[in-house]
Amino acid sequence: MQFEVIAKCHTTRARVSSMTMAHGTTYLPTFMPVATQGALKGLTSQQVEALGVTLILNNTYHLNLRPGTKVLDAAGGAHKFQGWRKNLLTDSGGFQMVSLNSFTKITEEGVLFASPFTGEPTMLTVRQSFFILLHSLTTGPRVEEAMWRSIRWLDRCIAKHKSSGRIDRQNLFAIIQGGLNPELRQKCVDEMIKRKPDLPGYAIGGLSGGEEKDVFWKIVKQCAEQLPEDRPRYCMGIGFAEDLLVCVALGVDMADCVFPTRTARFGVALTKDGPLNLRLERYRTAFVPIDEKCPCPTCTSGMSRASLHDLATHETVAAHAITQHNLVFQAAVMGGARDAIMEGRFPQYLKDFFRRYFADAAYPKWCVDALRSVGVDILEGIENPRIVEGKGAKWDYSDKPPK
Ligand SMILES: [Zn+2]
């Protein structure tokens, strides 16, 4: 993998870089859509590629269960199996382990659990993966134990990777763990930086599990500040526009989340004015696209909010249409950030984005604080801004937004 920093923001820690892998170049910062089981819900690989997406995420835990490694090997690999020609990142599956309640045993070798499909005992081993085995809000000695285990497993992954013969085609990222404890995070960062010659990139894991946003951004900042300049930094599991932009300002290069595709299936379109719940009655006669300036196939085809309102959640075409729009929105947020960093106007980009997104609601205090910590005051010049604690979204981003 070739990684090159192209430009840096003069104020924040944001940067633009290029990451060239076996299946092409991806420009960072970028958002990676999630194709958990080797398919992005609602779109074909060709449709995803046509949107300009150059990097998607698969999940090892899911691929291991279905179709399974035998089928993947027979197909000639994960790319061929899913008909995806661009870059692919596979996540080891710790988050899925967190959400499993049927696993029976965690050992130094791996996790033994009952397959949710067949009920058969299934082993996910270090060979395939390494991950945190705790809920992300867990605290105390178990977090430290898991953090050290993930370092030991990383060493075994490095050894396995070196002997795999795939070192030129696969790149191993270390995942910083340590829960919500800054001291453990520090130990983990220190240990993983020691292994830098064997690690083309770093991920910040174990967040986005329902922790306080104030804790979230401070952990991201702490990790991103210390990770090597010449390695991409990937913050796992974030996808709300405000989270993406704050993380980019803190020095993050990559992010992934199921949010934009999942919320699309519930009829929610993402826009620069905030999320639109197209199921609401007010869209029944809204004969305008989701966003007139959006270049996505849905908006340019003239498909209206009214039409999507009519189809949302009961006709699959609505899920396809809104999913395409939402992925283009995510790409536009990150592409806009790249352009702004290149042109030396990223602080203003942040101010403009937050002002428009939260103008008719209130600014989330955590975003204000996080961005002030890297030299940008998004409230500058705004008279009597409304500020809220907590996530501060216009609605709670739940899967079933209020009617
Ligand atoms: Zn659109």
TrEMBL record:
Alphabetized UniProt keyword annotations: Glycosyltransferase, Metal-binding, Transferase, tRNA processing, Zinc
First-tier enzyme category under EC: transferase
InterPro entries recorded: TGT, TGT-like_sf, tRNA_ribo_trans-like
Record SUPFAM superfamilies: tRNA-guanine transglycosylase
A Pfam family per the record: TGT
Keyword Metal-binding: yes
Entry's Gene Ontology BP terms: tRNA modification
Keyword Zinc included in the entry's annotation: yes
GO cellular component terms listed in the entry, alphabetical order: cytosol
Protein name as annotated: tRNA-guanosine(34) queuine transglycosylase
